[in-house]
């Protein structure tokens, strides 16, 4: 049977040249003019001789190239879960009043515009905003809410390792020098050693899918050259900022991991896509590439070995779904970040239609330690079912927020109460969001669960990227539910109807439920609520068929994961939402 053809991808392959440069050109046009016009699209299409539809499709898809008009001063304010939990969403409303523009709006004279984004990677200091590329962090958004023109320096990411010998944080918390393994492996001409040690380690992908890394590498290595290595730095899960820590503070470890992975795969070209919301990470990773080339670690003849390997750092254009591996490859090709049906998998048909390995930043950063110390040493860490370590991110409501390297299998209670120190007074924990918006919610009586994919999935959550966002008792359940659905509606790529339509309808139901609850609380409901059921709970019960469809028919993990996350939320908050046991029974993760 013939494989499905992607016309724009094939055209891009024949034309050559960096596809992502189209997105860069679109962003430059928007920065200069505030918007991208039809004339701009035609001109940009003429330069690389592409169909206007390809350029227009990309322009309309990404937050940085389409949508509302931008001002000369453009502010991106975070409305991710950590920021919303820290302020109840009030920081966004206050910023609208200070700037005199609504979210998505632009001043008539183009002096300022305001955009709400889902995460900026400052979840340890929420709330946060980017004033151009300048971070504004803290309760007053670094002086922005007070009209202070001078931005206070953004706080550094706190980090620590609870592992005796740090692995991923070997350079930051363990003092391990850079580029120790790569020259040694090259000198010994031992490419098989890398794959053998990673196989022995049992390392799995840390971006959420947890696929065995060695199996992915071996699958690509069996395919004909040329092959590519792609690192996913599009860390978009609200609550997660560990990849930002690695790219900003230890970028050479990421590059060395890429070099070792490329050697095992037989790739000669690597690409890293860094989300545009991480301007400092982008700058520091590009600087590290230049330094690595100057030191002879990258280039056409690395350390005189005759082996060529180089890295290209690409800036994303604002899309959560572009973190999914097939959507990520489309973004690198300068196309819409739509999800592609699989098979074929990227290891067979990936970037430019060639065999491609896609790993996330944390996964790649573990490789130098594994190759140096041996896969068996890594496999002894963690849990027999899931060996190794994991970076977890604790949000701003914890007494000690930050990035922590822990062994897999530790109880969540240890992370919440001992590592994180519990919640800052006067906050009290009502729910714990694990693994980002597609992960799930757990109640305080579930904190004895281990940090393992299987037990978490059976409890209705998912490990995901490893973020832990605390939600306190002040946030109404219907407000949190509307927040989750709003994320889904905003970030769905729209490639499949169950997710595209389902997220919008779910948001409508949640908004109606929130209005109904407010009305009933004020005594203005058209129909008084019963003791155990309210107008809001009736609307929430109506979302169950919708979740069923999304859970089984969505093309990728986004729609399926969102359905599971909503179910976990309704289970944790069933009493507050007025749902009975039968209504909340679907709060367990769908077996499909």
Which structural class is indicated by helix and strand composition?
A: alpha/beta
What's the overall average pLDDT, rounded?
Answer: 89
Number of strands: 14
Tell me the radius of gyration: 24 Å
Number of helices: 23
In what range is the share of β-strand residues? 5-15%
Distance from first to last alpha carbon: 27 Å
- Taking strands numbered 1, 2, ... along the chain, how are they ordered across the largest sheet? 5-11-10-14-12-13
- What's the shape? globular
Percent helix range: 40-55%
Low-confidence stretches: 527-533
Give an account of the 3D structure.
The protein is of the alpha/beta class. Helices cover 41% and strands 12% of the residues. A hairpin with a 7-residue loop joins β10 (389-394) and β11. It has helices spanning 7-15, 20-33, 38-46, 52-61, 81-87, 90-99, 182-187, 191-201, 213-221, 242-249, 251-265, 279-294, 325-332, 361-373, 375-379, 412-419, 453-458, 477-491, 497-521, 535-541, 544-553, 557-572, 581-584, and strands at residues 73-78, 112-117, 128-131, 134-137, 159-161, 228-233, 269-274, 310-315, 356-360, 389-394, 402-407, 429-434, 440-442, 467-472. The strands form three sheets. It has a six-stranded mixed β-sheet with strand order 5-11-10-14-12-13. Strands 2-1-3-4 form a four-stranded mixed β-sheet, with helices on one face. The chain has a four-stranded parallel β-sheet with strand order 8-7-6-9, with helices on both faces. It has 23 helices and 14 strands. The two termini are 27 Å apart.
